[in-house]
Amino acid sequence: MDAAKLIRKALDGSRASLDEQAGKQVLSGAGISVPKSIVVTGPMELPAAIEGLSAPFVVKVMSAEILHKSDAGGVAINLKSAEEVAAAVAAMATSPKIKSAKVDGYLIEEMAPAGQEVVIGGLRDPNFGPMVMVGLGGIFVEVLKDVSFRVCPITEGDARRMLDELKGGALLDGARGQAPASRDAIVDVLIKLGGADGILMTHADTVAEVDINPLIVSETAAVAADARFILAEREGETEWDAAPNLDPLFMPKTIAVAGASATSLSMGNPFLRRLKEFGYKGTVYPIHPKADEIDGMKAYSSFADTPEPIDYAYVTIAANRVPAMLAGAKGRVKFAQVLSSGFAEVPEGVALQDELVAAAKEGGSRLIGPNCLGTYSPRGGVTFPERATNEPGVVGVISQSGGLATDIVRLGQRRGLRFSG
């Protein structure tokens, strides 16, 4: 059974986790090595059940009600024979915590060869989506919290840098006479869990947490000795009640663009094109002192001449003309975002910026900018970055740099992030 079917079967059965055998089937299906195993319901099925396995053996109880098997007395290791396995199963069945739980069976595995213990895990963060983690096992993760995280999907370079960030990372290269652990093998598991085609990305809607603890790593290979999968259907995005006075900015019903040209490609024309490509559903009014039509839309000579008030105005005209344009809005423009430069970012523009602020107050407009690239709001259908997704999310960004904000949107999009606006 493939991973999606295993997960769906568990969810349809109202289970919040995969049993260890199913979890390891998911890992194996992704190309991660797991020990050879068999499941029995009791000691009476032994020794015939383990004829295909090689000693030493490990026995683990399987129960959805027991997540921490060791604490419940549900793990026995280094068993040398079928008789020892049968005795371990019988002893577990009498343990108080196991006896009171609903037991699905007992997982019998070939014991993984000795090696460096590593912990690899993942979770679905409510804000950043799937994330992957790596750390060294034992005291390093439990006490020292020596771990490294990344937002998925990760690349091979990301995985190697994660290992380099571990304070105890030198142990992977061999220390105090111990054999080194294969970094390549760890990187391979990290990619198969958190890469673009990894488990965390492929099953982002159903897998809430993954814990491979330990991953036993030798000089040449890595084996997942234990695996825990926590399942949960991803809920739809939360519908937040945005502050009403910001709705015209993030969800404008009307947009005016001052600076688009009917005869040449000015700064306003790309913004008009992006609104169409992004699927903006409101009304757009090009503003031009002479043109009758721009990009197939009727043009108006000023903000005061549009048929209805403007929620959001995108202004790209020459800096010295902006104050007069905003002053003439007469309370009909709620937000004016000024792309134009030449204001207080240069010494000679300080006085012009004071004039701009006064004009915005006179015209009743809230001012964004000047020298500001724009707003990106998937909810409202507005974008200044090209080729940005219109799928809304829960991450908001306020950036002093429009170039940096564009990079955040593009890099975040490649990593599976979705932004709010």
CATH architecture of the domain at 244-414: 3-Layer(aba) Sandwich
Quaternary organisation of the protein chains? single chain
* DSSP E strands, number: 18
What is the terminal-to-terminal distance?
41 Å
CATH homologous group name of the domain at 244-414: NAD(P)-binding Rossmann-like Domain
* Shape annotation: elongated
Q: Major sheet, described briefly?
A: 7 strands, antiparallel
Rg estimate, integer Å:
30 Å
CATH class bucket of the domain at 244-414: Alpha Beta
Tell me the helix content: 25-40%
Give the low-confidence spans.
none
CATH fold type of the domain at 244-414: Rossmann fold
Broad structural category: alpha+beta
Average of the residue pLDDT scores: 90
> What's the total helix number?
13
Strand residue percentage: 15-25%
Task: Characterize the structure shown.
- This protein is α+β, with helices and mostly antiparallel strands and 421 residues long.
- Among the domains are: 114-234, D-amino Acid Aminotransferase, Chain A, domain 1; 244-414, 3-Layer(aba) Sandwich (Rossmann fold).
- It is built from 13 helices and 18 strands.
- It has helices at 3-12, 20-29, 82-93, 96-99, 139-142, 156-165, 183-194, 199-202, 247-250, 268-278, 322-327, 350-363, 402-414, and strands spanning 17-18, 37-40, 57-62, 75-79, 105-110, 116-125, 129-136, 147-151, 207-217, 222-224, 228-231, 254-258, 283-287, 293-294, 297-298, 310-315, 333-338, 366-368.
- Strands 1, 6, 7, 8, 9, 10 and 11 form a 7-stranded antiparallel sheet that branches.
- Helix 6 (156-165) packs across helix 7 (183-194).
- The chain is elongated, with a radius of gyration of 30 Å.
- The model has no long low-confidence stretch (mean pLDDT 90).
